[in-house]
Structures are given as structure tokens and as C-alpha cells.
Amino acid sequence: MSIESPSDLTGLERAGAVTRLVIEAMKGAVRPGISTLELDKIGGDVMRRHGARSAPHLVYAFPGHNCISINDEVVHGVPSARTLQPGDLVKLDVTVELDGYMADACETVAVPPICRQQKGLIDCAQSAFYAGLQRVRPGARAFEVGESIHREVTRWGYSVVRDLTGHGIGRTIHEPPTVPNRRDPSCDAVLTEGLVFTIEPLISAGSSRTFLKHDGWTIRTSDRALSAHYEHTIVVTAQGARLLTA
To answer: Three-class SS string for 114-179?
Structure first.
């Protein structure tokens, strides 16, 4: 969406603030032995306390409040009785709806102890996000963001997951424009002041290709390589970009 009034910005800020609270609550509970279903309940309880709802459940009937993906699962992992083990990489992907506005963010968290590769993936995903963020300005093209993300991920020696992208958001989860994680000239939307979208590098330690799990939701790397995901909802400003989910 594009912000058209102060009330739009306020609504998005409030949704973004709850999204951050949900992520922080789940991050604080990550430990060996906790199930992804228990983590999801923690996140869902935070939403309810603030009058918010799970946007994936609301829009797509996703079977959980939050997408929680482990190791080679890139996105859309379904909460279950599966328990976290030492060394797991856990992607906490939260999209909140509050009073008609939506915000989306994700962080990758490692269950201690963490190895060098896991830390590298987490750090790379975050670094790639900020590389893309630097390209945001009125008049830029969406593929310019992806170009910078791809360059940074390659510099670290990892792969961009090619078929997953950032997206517009605001009144529903997925709106125009598509914001790629590589230089894709077909994604040539012009970034305008007030435009709201996500930047979300999704990266792999191995193949850039993925497949859909039998549950119909979870997307995994094709070679079962570890993956990481870092995301914020942003708004384009005259000065560049402002994070709404930080």
C-alpha cells in the first residue's frame, strides 16, 4: 500500500510494534526442548493481548499464528510438536493484522551452541537486508534493491533463494510491488514516497532452488542446505527508508 494519511502511518506503526513484540517474545523462549507449537502459542498470546490477529491465518487459513521454520526449511514452516535441538537455525516469521493494517518481519535465531556456518548465515542475511535498504529512495526501481542483496550474499559465499521475494504489504499480506532478492529486470516497479513493502533476503548455504514439503506449506532448500531469513516492513521516505518493525 501507499500511505495516504497520518492515520495510515499510525496504523502501520502500531501493527509493526506488535509484530516486534511477538518476535521478541518467541526469541526469548527459544531453547533446546521447546516445541515450535509452544513457541507459536507464545506469539499468539502476545497478539491477543494487543488486540491483533495472525495475518497468515486470517488471509490464507495458515494452520498456526506464525511461520516457524527450522534448518533447511526456508519459509512457511507449520508449528508442530517438533522440538528444537542444540544447533538448530530457527526462522521466526511474524505477520500481524491490527485494525485493518498488516506488518511483517522475520529473524533467524540459533539454538546454542552456534557454529561458524550458522552465525555466518544469520549475519549474511542481516547484512544483505541493509545492503538492499541502502538502495531505497523515491525513484529507485525494485530490482535495484535485489541487485544489492544478491551482490552482498554472493560476497559472503552463499546463495539467494531465487523464487522467494519481498512484497508490498499494508491492507493484506501480499500486495504489489514484488521486491526480488536479485537483479530481475521484470521487477521494475518505481519506489514512490509512502510506499510500504518488505525487504527480506532468504539465503541458502547451498542450492538456490527449493521444494514444497508434503504439508503443502513449508518450503525447503532442494539440497537440504541450511537457510536463513531476515525481514522488515519499511516505508519509503524522502530521505530513503524507515523501518516499521524494528
So the answer is: CCHHHHHHHHHHHHHHHHHHCCCCCCCEHHHHHHHHHHHHHHHCCEECCCCCEEECCCCCCEEEEE
Question: Rounded to an integer, what distance in angstroms lies between the CA atom of residue 165 and that of residue 200?
Answer: 7
| 0.85 surpassed by pTM | yes
Average pLDDT over residues 71-92: 98
- What is the per-residue pLDDT for 135? 97
Q: In terms of Cα–Cα distance, which of 114, 115, 148 is closest to 134? A: 148
Q: Where exactly are the structural domains of the chain?
A: 6-243
Tens of pLDDT, residues 85-95: 999 999 999 99
Q: How far apart, in whole angstroms, are the C-alpha atoms of residue 67 and residue 75?
A: 7
CATH entry 3.90.230.10 includes domain 6-243 = yes
